[in-house]
Q: What sequence folds into this?
């Protein structure tokens, strides 16, 4: 079975700082990868996804993520965060042949103005 | 703008009472998922359906939880009897899963039902 590890449970940044959230998965086969964001009191929304092709994917709100197959990683980045990026971020993996997503525990990002 | 809807948004009940949560998936989606989110456990998959048929409910406590899809526009999650440890946010998500192997696609989440069992 696949698993997802998000290294940081909490991250605190000042506005305009750069962001990188780590995500590693364990599965030896083909995967689809996702980052979801959950703003306070809201539901999960898709930030970006990787299925195939260019390993650097761009999502909404200036976020991007890079799939490095050799490292089983799919880290999320943003060059300059804003206060409105305060939210919880979830990495998820879907392994080929499975209908379900396996989610990481989430990383809570707090951006101070 | 197609969305997953869930009712009720908030539910406060007493231990032992029955709780029913409802979900309307996005029209055309063939797969519906039920998740539970808590601070301690994070996001847990409880059950999911494909074309209204239950595929996996191994994440659910079988003695008190049940999930059904009476029709393509309605999924229900029922807890009977409810217990304080069931307090959580319950999310429904839907997606369009294609292919013989059923490899998943992105999932669209509803707003959740925040359940408090006293």
A:
């Amino acid at each position: 079975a696949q698993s997802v590890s998000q290294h940081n449970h909490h991250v605190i940044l000042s506005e305009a700082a750069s962001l990188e959230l780590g995500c590693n998965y364990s599965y030896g086969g083909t995967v689809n990868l996702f980052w979801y964001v959950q703003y306070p009191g809201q539901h999960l929304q898709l930030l970006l996804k990787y299925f195939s092709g260019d390993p650097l994917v761009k999502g909404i709100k200036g976020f991007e993520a890079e799939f490095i197959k050799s490292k089983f990683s799919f880290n999320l980045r943003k060059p300059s965060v804003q206060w409105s990026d305060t939210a919880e971020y979830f990495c998820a993996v879907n392994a080929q042949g499975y209908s379900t997503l396996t989610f990481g525990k989430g990383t809570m990002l707090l951006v101070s103005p | 703008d197609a969305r997953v809807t869930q009712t009720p948004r908030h539910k406060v009940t007493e231990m032992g009472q029955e709780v029913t949560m409802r979900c309307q998936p996005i029209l055309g989606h063939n797969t519906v998922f039920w998740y539970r989110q808590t601070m301690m456990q994070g996001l847990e998959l409880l059950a999911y359906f494909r074309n209204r048929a239950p595929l996996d409910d191994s994440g659910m406590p079988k003695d008190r939880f049940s999930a059904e899809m009476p029709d393509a526009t309605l999924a229900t999650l029922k807890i009977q009897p409810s217990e304080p440890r069931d307090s959580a946010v319950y999310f429904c998500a839907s997606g369009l899963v294609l292919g013989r192997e059923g490899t998943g696609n992105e999932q669209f989440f509803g707003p959740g039902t925040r359940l408090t069992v006293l």
Chain A has one domain: 3-91. The longest strand of chain A covers residues 87-95. DSSP finds no helices and twelve strands in chain A. The CA atoms of residues 22 and 75 of chain A lie 5 Å apart.
